[in-house]
Amino acid sequence: SGKWAKAMAILKEFEDKCSTPISKLRQVADAMTVEMHAGLASEGGSKLKMLISYVDNLPTGDEHGLFYALDLGGTNFRVLRVLLGGKEGRVLKQEFTEVSIPPNLMVSTSNELFDFIAAELAKFVATEGEDFHLSPGRQRELGFTFSFPVKQTSINSGNIITWSKGFSIADAVGQDVVSELTKAMERKGVDMRVAALVNDTIGTLAGGKYDNNDVVAAVILGTGTNAAYVERAHAIPKWHGLLPKSGEMVINMEWGNFRSSHLPMTEYDQALDNESLNPGDHIFEKIISGMYLGDIVRRVLLRMAEEAAFFGDTVPPKLRIPLVLRTPDMSAMHHDTSPDLRVVGTKMKDILGITNTSLKTRKVVVELCNIVASRGARLSAAGILGILKKLGKDTIKEGEKQKTVIAMDGGLYEHYTEFSKCLEGTLNELLGEEVAKNIDIIHANDGSGVGAALLAASHSQYP
Ligand code: ADP
Ligand code: MG
Questions:
Q1: What is the pLDDT of residues 379-417, one digit of tens each?
Q2: How far, in Å, from the CA of 118 to the mean position of ligand 1?
Q3: What are the φ/ψ torsions at residue 336 (nearest 5 degrees)?
Q4: Mean pLDDT of 50-76
Q5: Which atom of ligand 1 is the closest one to the Cα of 73?
């Protein structure tokens, strides 16, 4: 019928605008490399902040003793303790607990939030068994993963630039997040020193490097997206401090904020951005990360319903609710292998209130998921190529035997198999067979928790 043809025309136009041929991906990768240079050259020189992390040494494997880690960056926070046993023992023991943050505290005051965190930390410390034996006379030390934008001032201090992800605590902005936590720990009687303040990409990089010495970069694909990598200190013109002994500095790219005229943006992406909490910002993130992919699918389905009666004569009202279709549900539909696409049918009914979808309709939904996920995955691969280019690892060097490894983490990468398969396939295609042999992607599972504890160990007050 004419309606079906109209719906297919909407889909086709969207698909065309999303297309990411290899030539375009190369342009995106080149733009990423250019912006990396610009962000390193001067403060504010690029949309890429290229934040200096003050981490100039990644774990060596020699770290030993008891260390804590705290991960705050979403609706849950995690507290972890690990007993490190050096090169022989590695991670001897670890325990963690996960606590959800009461929504009212996400928009309260700094004292209220950090008192809650410190109180939970106190409870967790109280459950520390003898087998974690803290060396006599030593204070407990903590690696603090804080995944909001921070202007770092040393390895264990930094001021909050702004909140995101549903947090909004005005009196904490501009404050040193480590001193806020430390004061709360004092109020709650927790005797612990924050030895390292890091962001989740840096934690993942540290955890990844501990597992595999050839790791040079980390990429997070979760609710949001970000990347970090090891840069040569003398390649950072905006760094005016002493050159670190290692000659290296870990850079937190904040790559979610990357944008380029080469990114394939559709009218749906424009609308999503306009209606977001941070219009104009984090454009790369809005095209590739878990917070948004499902909503892009919803927006296209809504257009097909409005202009081509794709779901019948009335537009299903739930289709108008922003963010109602979440990426995990999109991925469940995309991965549906049943002959009648049963999962798609159930999701359409349960989430969007659309009953009795035909197999033909369900196939279109899967195709739409594939278009949105593939674009995100292919652009993520282009971003990684940008980093490899910056490191000079995108070509074969004569006699080079060392592998180059990228540590990946985050719920999107971990659970959305079609996405991660596509990302890896695209990266191999971009690199070519010869170079691809030298580049590995590993999943740094919960690297961020252990990674922060490792960085606390390498920045311990005890030699
Ligand atoms: P965060 O990024 O919030 O720190 P995670 O790394 O655990 O936390 O990522 C969670 C995000 O991963 C979710 O917001 C969602 O977008 C995405 N995600 C989780 N599970 C799936 C899934 N099964 N399929 C696709 N995406 C998923
Ligand atoms: Mg996380």
A1: 999 999 999 999 999 998 887 788 999 999 999 999 999
A2: 26
A3: -65, 115
A4: 92
A5: 4
DSSP state of 209: H
SS3 state of residue 402: coil
State in Å: Cα 437 to ligand 2 middle.
29
How high is the pLDDT of residue 448? 61
Tokens in use for 136?
Answer: 């006599």
Determine whether 362 is an active site residue.
no
Q: How far is the CA of 353 from the centre of ligand 2 (A)?
A: 31
Minimum-distance ligand 1 atom for the alpha carbon of 293: 16
Annotated catalytic, 56?
A: no
Q: Cα angle at 205 between 203 and 211, to 5 degrees?
A: 105
**Best CA proximity match to 202, nearest among 417, 420, 407, 439:** 407
447 ligand 1 Cβ < 6 A: no
What is the pTM assigned to this prediction?
A: 0.94
> In the chain, what are the domain boundaries?
1-53+212-444, 54-198
Active-site position among 147, 164, 260, 331: 147
What tokens does 244 get?
A: 């670190």
Which residue owns the Cα nearest ligand 1 atom 7? 411
Instruction: Indicate if 147 belongs to the active site.
Output: yes
Query: How far apart (Å, rounded) are the C-alpha atoms in residues 129 and 136?
Result: 15
328 lines ligand 1 (CB under 6 A): yes
Of 365, 305, 360, 310, the closest CA to residue 332 belongs to 365
C-alpha 126 to ligand 1 mean position (Å): 31
User: In which region does residue 418 sit, left (phi positive, over 0), alpha (psi from -120 to 50) or beta (all else)?
Assistant: alpha
Domain spanning 1-53+212-444, CATH architecture: 3-Layer(aba) Sandwich (3.40)
**124: amino acid identity, one letter:** F
**pLDDT tens digits for 11-29?**
999 999 999 999 999 999 9
pLDDT at 401: 81
Classify domain 54-198 at the CATH superfamily level: ATPase, nucleotide binding domain (3.30.420.40)
DSSP state of 239: -
What ligand is nearest to the CA atom of residue 409? 1
Q: Which of 71, 200, 329, 336 is catalytic?
A: 200
Q: Residues with Cβ < 8 Å from 193, sequence gap 6 or more? A: 139, 140, 141, 142, 182, 461
Please tell me the total number of residues recorded for the chain in this structure.
463
Backbone angle region of 254, left / alpha / beta, with phi > 0 → left and psi within -120 to 50 → alpha:
left
